[in-house]
Amino acid sequence: MRPRDLHSKSRLPLAFSVPKREDQHNEDSFRRSAKGVYALSDGASVSFDSASWARILVRRYTRDPEFTREWLSAAIAEFRQLYDRDSLPWMQQASFDKGSFASLLGVRMADGGRAIQVLSVGDSLAVLCDGDRIKATFPISSAAEFTQSPQLICTNPTHNAFLDKMDFAYDLVADWSFRGLQQPALLCMTDALGHWLLSQRDRDSSPISVLRRLRTPGAFARFVREERAAGRMKRDDTTLIALW
Amino acid sequence: MAYQAEISRENPTCILFVIDQSGSMDEITEAGRSKAAFVADVLNKTLYTLITTCSKSDGVRNYFDVGVIAYAGSQVGSGFGGALSGDIVHPIHAISENTLRVEERKKKVDDGAGGIVELKTKFPIWFDPKSQGGTPMRAALRKTMETMFGWCEQHPGSYPPTILHVTDGQSTDGTPEEMADGLRQISTKDGAALLFNLHVNTAAGQEIVFPTSESDLNDDYSRMLFRMSSPLPEHLAKFAGDKGYTIADGSRGFIFNGDPQCVVDFFEIGTRPRVVADR
Question: pTM for the full model?
Fold first, then answer.
């Protein structure tokens, strides 16, 4: 079986997202460009305005996927323009100064999926599949890693010091390809679903086949609701981008 | 397994500070400030940090109920002033809206482009130093027990309350130990209330932090405060270990004569619940 062409209709991404609770704002954000660039960001709820921060990150990434220190400084500057810091009440000023946090997962696909570059900061997860088999995950490879506090991108540069030690092109990036895969697929997801997927894999079940059946927002919402109720999925904003 | 409940607006936890404001708290420490001034400052900063954690662009989220019991002379009651003085425990958004005053301070911060800039920052004050009279510790812990019993009845599914008690001396109204024992037996479905004690004593002995036994403590009051203290749950033990403290099985939430950083850490560790909701 030949790998399916990325540009065929079936390769259009399915994207679903449900908030942690029905009456609460969803702080995940995702976007794609016409040039095969996808971005997903999970805003951390316990911070000032992570929803806006996540939106800025995915919009800027899909326009310019060259993630550099200058790129990050420009994104922070854009966020800071959203608020007049000095006029904020003290508690919001303190929270604004502390910063807003979000993950960033970016995917660039070229040549019909023969070259895939994944960039990740934080705990959003990219998964490369062949049929129901998981071929690779990035940046996390086991469910246990989700219990550690993730290093997220922050609007306060002090909290981005961990990036100073990193070679962005090496430490933050994975290079994958659909080449040689019989039934290739790429999934991007925020941490609650990523943890679920790696936990299920550890139990020798086939989580990919479960996700493959989810073709409508209603089906995805029902799946998340059932897994939360069964205690298998953390209650958090939950987003999936799937290129089947 | 205890101490696993997620802290959320639907299921907030409670943090209660019990503060000795007796006359001896006016003693000047090596840092040149009174114990009362230092404790008031740390308490203001701890509330500031807690509220900052709960603040978003659309308001303050009620992840915590917070209370302060102050005791001195013959008085045991709310440590808050103004609109908060009528009750012991308040939702954290109410505390954020009812400060004594907001001061303006300056701090240096990274400007994001390799430089440092000085920012004017608003800093809220809820507590001014107070120190007078005797030390009615037994009555204070009785009041704490009554308050926490009521809170747990109203929040059976929540992460249990944490009580941080700061004192510099001996009780003047009888032994508080049985009150502490009763307090540690109050529980939610997620576990028993946690009582941590900070003994600030300028006279007697070197710093002892999170001990596992009372054998290294050289006075009866410290040994009693050790016995009154809860063992550190696993997640707090790990957090304390990550901060560089030596932690062993059975380490209790008790500090004797901690240096200023140690006192700050005591408050930070004690107000660090296992899970702040939704990361």
Answer: 0.85
- Residue B69 to residue B167: CA distance in whole angstroms: 12
Helical (H) or strand (E) element with A196: helix A191-202
The 3-state DSSP class for residue A76 equals helix
Contacts of B102 in chain A (CB under 8 A): 90
Q: Measured between beta carbons, which residues in chain A are less than 8 angstroms from residue B109? A: 97, 156, 158
Q: Is B9 touching A (CB cutoff 8 A)? A: no
* Alpha carbons B226 and B196: distance in angstroms, whole number: 9
Residue range A3-31, pLDDT digits in tens: 333 333 446 689 999 998 888 889 999 99
Contact A158 B110 (CB under 8 A): yes
- Residue A230: strand, helix, or coil: coil
* Residue A233: φ, ψ to 5°: -135, 135
Q: Are B253 and B232 in contact (CB under 8 A)?
A: yes
Q: Where are the alpha helices (DSSP H) in chain B?
A: 35-54, 92-97, 137-154, 177-185, 220-228, 234-242, 260-270
Residues B259 and B167: their CA atoms lie apart, in Å, by 14
| Helices A50-63 and A69-80, axial angle in degrees (round to 10) | 140
Residue A75, classed as helix, strand or coil, is helix
What is the SS3 assignment for B51? helix
CATH of the structural domain A9-234+238-243, one choice from 2.40.30.170, 3.40.50.150, 3.60.40.10, 3.30.2350.10: 3.60.40.10
Nearest Cβ partner for B279 among A44, A73, A98: A44
Which of A164, A114, A112, A103 has its CA nearest to residue A138?
A103
Question: Measuring CA to CA, which residue among A51, A94, A20 is closest to residue B54?
Answer: A94
Instruction: Report the complex ipTM.
Output: 0.81
Which amino acid is located at A91 in the chain?
Answer: M
> Mean pLDDT across the stretch A226-238?
93
- Asked if A42 contacts A122 with a C-beta cutoff of 8 angstroms, the reply is yes
Contact present, B19 and B66 (Cβ < 8 Å): no
> What are the boundaries of each domain within chain A?
9-234+238-243
Distance CA B220, CA B201 (A): 13
The domains located in chain B, with CATH, are: 13-270 (3.40.50.410)
Share of chain A above pLDDT 90, in %: 80
8 Å CB contact between A3 and A184: yes
Is the distance from CB of A182 to CB of A132 less than 8 angstroms? no
DSSP A35: T
Give the gyration radius of chain A's Cα atoms.
Answer: 18
Please compute the mean of the pLDDT values over residues A37-48 and round it to a whole number: 92
Best residue of A18, A90, A151 to probe chain B, by most B CBs closer than 10 Å: A90
Asked if B55's CB is within 8 angstroms of A45's CB, the reply is: no
Residues on chain B touching A22 (C-beta within 8 angstroms): none
Residue reference for tokens 């219990």: A147
